[in-house]
Amino acid sequence: MPSSVSAPAPKPAAKKPNxxxxxxxxxxxxxxxxxxxxxxxxxxxxxxxxxxAAISSQDAGSKLVSFINEIYGQQIGQVTLKTVTxxxxxxxxxxxxxxxxxxxxxxxxxxxxxxxxLPQAIVMEDALTQFQxxxxxxxxxxxxxxxxxxxxxxxxxxxxxxxxx
Length: 165
Known about the structure:
The protein is an alpha+beta fold. The protein is built from 3 helices and 4 strands, in the order ααββββα. The chain is elongated and about 125 Å long.
């Protein structure tokens, strides 16, 4: 007896998707990200900090004088630049300003990239030496005794002044 059930028809072969457009898009995205990272990272060192771009001492001095005259000119008058030298990784600028009608030279500091103005620098070694000398001087002074003090042991309180009405 012939069978009425026929064998299943063969399935058509699965069509493979075209991967070329996907690969092209991925490559473009990777190249764009790499270019952005390179351009953005171009201003950074290997450790991720900003690269240092020093300017000349004269440019830093000119920038400083312009800054001081703009910001502080009304309070201290116009300043002029006398000298700029490099000291301890900073530019040390000697500026001349007028105090009590007399020109006075003052040392101030500028970062080598011209971005930071430091009105005063403390040489830590000198400050520490002065502090230790002061400390030794205080320890060398004789300590007073209780009998030396001329303090009243039972002071009489001073009455408060009366309020007028």
